[in-house]
Amino acid sequence: xxxxxxxxxxxxxxxxxxxxxxxxxxxxxxxxxxxxxxxxxxxxxxxxxxxxxxxxxxxxxxxxxxxxxxxxxxxxxxxxxxxxxxxxxxxxxxxxxxxxxxxxxxxxxxxxxxxxxxxxxxxxxxxxxxxxxxxxxxxxxxxxxxxxxxxxxxxxxxxxxxxxxxxxxxxxxxxxxxxxxxxxxxxxxxxxxxxxxxxxxxxxxxxxxxxxxxxxxxxxxxxxxxxxxxxxxxxxxxxxxxxxxxxxxxxxxxxxxxxxxxxxxxxxxxxxxxxxxxxxxxxxxxxxxxxxxxxxxxxxxxxxxxxxxxxxxxxxxxxxxxxxxxxxxxxxxxxxxxxxxxxxxxxxxxxxxxxxxxxxxxxxxxxxxxxxxxxxxxx
Length: 379
Ligand SMILES: [Ca+2]
Ligand SMILES: [Ca+2]
Ligand SMILES: [Ca+2]
Known about the structure:
Elements: E1 15-18, E2 44-45, H1 53-56, E3 68-73, E4 77-83, E5 95-101, E6 117-119, E7 127-132, E8 148-152, E9 179-182, E10 186-192, H2 193-196, E11 203-211, E12 221-223, E13 236-238, E14 242-245, E15 255-258, H3 306-309, H4 313-321, H5 328-338, E16 340-341, E17 349-351, E18 376-378
The structure holds calcium ion (3 copies).
The site of one calcium ion has 8 residues, from loops.
């Protein structure tokens, strides 16, 4: 028996891309002195208008009133931003300092530039970015040239980084390679994570202060809030930090999740091998490749398949008896139905036609565009 197994099944597969946990601190930041949205929420705040009267009373030190501190990072840099709403390079004069601690007790306890600022944090700062703001000229004592150093505590002093203009500002510029200022905006730092020796998952502690050049000046103001100068020459002692977490990339990790389990609608069954071993029939001269199977590209003869050789029981009986069909009308009808040519005196033959060609019984398959099809199925 010829068997054609029709395999029908459908598989529903659904995939989802799931975003990883959000990382508020991970962002793409441009070093330009402007605080972009990537900084998200402030990590520290300080009241506005809280400067000592002697400091707020000078136009060129009014910029030292600090209000908020931010941080962000990408794969390679820590960005820190301090709002300086009253800063202008046309009027401001003074210095900045950014302390960074890596949660180690060791560190410097005095200011690397020699101001009257004592670092008494439980964990002493391991790095201090100290710089002159790009500001106005003509203020005695202040350089206001933008020169900025990244000092590293080497275990005994702050000498590492001395004499190197790390920030890259010169000639009155406000945007350097590692620090940038923008009028009425603030100051922005871009610190290589490699320089700090930290990576995502770690937290650094930060404190930012503003002051003026000179051994008698303490911190005029700080973020986070801390001891601040009550006058132009009041020494200060700092002990406050703001925590800044170094975040990993918040880009979706594309972790695939399994959707609904695919459910085949029918269990696939294996049909006949497309190239079975030929088996010679009793009345066949020899076996032919493809005998005994139906394939989509060809038809072959199978002497064992009675239903094809003798499509109609009535006529099968007649053939066996050798009688000539008596009713031509019946024969015509049968011919149209089954495509059987049993003309008198000829060996019974079976013609196969497509369904659509049922009423054109003489047109064999090879005329219907089926490659390789044999037009006759002969027994
Ligand atoms: Ca920016
Ligand atoms: Ca303030
Ligand atoms: Ca430390």
